[in-house]
Amino acid sequence: MGGRSSLQREIFSMSATMKEGFALCGAAASVFREIPRQFGRRTRQISHIVATTGFQGVICRARFKASDWIRPREPVWPVVPDDIIAADLSQPFCARVPEIDREAPITVNWVTGPAGRGSGGHTTLYRIVKQLQNSGYLNRVYLYDPYAGDPKYYQGLAREHYGLTCEIGDIRDGMKDADALVATSWPTAYAVFNARCAGKRFYFVQDYEPYFYPVGTNSVLAENTYRMGFHGITAGRWLAEKLAREFGMQSDYFPFGCDTALYRRDPASKRSGVAFYARVGTPRRAVELGLLALELFAKRQPQIELHLFGERFDNLPFRVTNHGLVSPQRLNEIYNRCFAGLSLSLTNVSLVPQEMLASGCLPVVNDAVQNRIVLDNSYVRYAPLTPHLLAAALESVVSMPDFASVSKKASESVAPTSWNMAGAAVDRAFRVALRQAL
């Protein structure tokens, strides 16, 4: 019995090994059969891409696949995770609000992410900071950087490029007591919520940031910051109304400003083009739709020059002058060469339409409630957000028989607009809210 049992075990073992071998051979045969099939598939795909977009299209797709392959699978957080864990919204810290001394300046701690050159949000924020400083405020800027950048570099950039002269520190070193403590983006709101220094909590809101992300963790984390009990100061009325309606958040707003000394209409300018503000890194500006509209427009009006600014683009199916990121002075020159400018926004409106108006360039903007509320200007041309209708709106501007007269009136319509008005509105919001907090 024992011998037969041993022999049976050997037979069973050999049988299992043979089955595994057959399975491996079958799998290998399957792989080898798949190779020519996949090779044929990829060859046909590459041929199709070359036929439709050229070799540049193949290179673009290869770069996209390579970038996806090397992308880390763990999330890169735009906020320090420990700050999220520490922020228990059910138990907010009751900060002391100092009594305002009429003889002393109002002290404000601004918490902001570090900025590179050309950041529109930081440009507006730092303009307001400088306006308040001119009104006697004592400002401190604290950099919040979850990516562990070099604070000295960004401090230098804030001074050299944005012209800040106030104290600039690293939030990791702690914050001094102040009259007001201001979050300026959703990641910084967590740091402000968790801070233990004195000062009434404010939230400087320039856009509805949950819209910056697909529905998911980041959009929820951003939305939760509107439930932190801060007093909002928003860029334009649309945000103030939205935050009050959806979150019960008390807010004041400031009007969009425009540097009309820099952006101005040149009566001697020869206009021959259309401009488009395009940056792929800001999806809320609907760049792809704008480029499709320009492609249609270029076919209908081939004599009109096209100008792109904000970012350089390759392999476009129409002739265009790529300006990339330009200085404000250069931007004013571009506006003065154009009849119309395309400026799209799926969230809060950008500063671009006001600048275009000041330069006598008529902005074509997607028709949306936030754009109509904030701009509130009869010389803006609104169009539904489809390539054909946007292209038609551009055509209607370039074919206007009385363009020079309309251009002049458009420029005059924003002449009273200034950042002094915006700064004064923020000053009032601080003073009223601080008095009410006592």
UniProtKB/TrEMBL annotation:
<dbReference type="GO" id="GO:0016740">
    <property type="term" value="F:transferase activity"/>
</dbReference>
<keyword id="KW-0808">Transferase</keyword>
<keyword id="KW-0614">Plasmid</keyword>
<protein>
    <submittedName>
        <fullName>Glycosyl transferase group 1</fullName>
    </submittedName>
</protein>
<dbReference type="InterPro" id="IPR055050">
    <property type="entry name" value="WsaF_C"/>
</dbReference>
<dbReference type="Pfam" id="PF22772">
    <property type="entry name" value="WsaF_C"/>
</dbReference>
<feature type="domain" description="WsaF C-terminal">
    <location>
        <begin position="274"/>
        <end position="394"/>
    </location>
</feature>
<feature type="domain" description="WsaF N-terminal">
    <location>
        <begin position="176"/>
        <end position="231"/>
    </location>
</feature>
<dbReference type="GO" id="GO:0030247">
    <property type="term" value="F:polysaccharide binding"/>
</dbReference>
<dbReference type="Pfam" id="PF21374">
    <property type="entry name" value="WsaF_N"/>
</dbReference>
<dbReference type="InterPro" id="IPR048510">
    <property type="entry name" value="WsaF_N"/>
</dbReference>
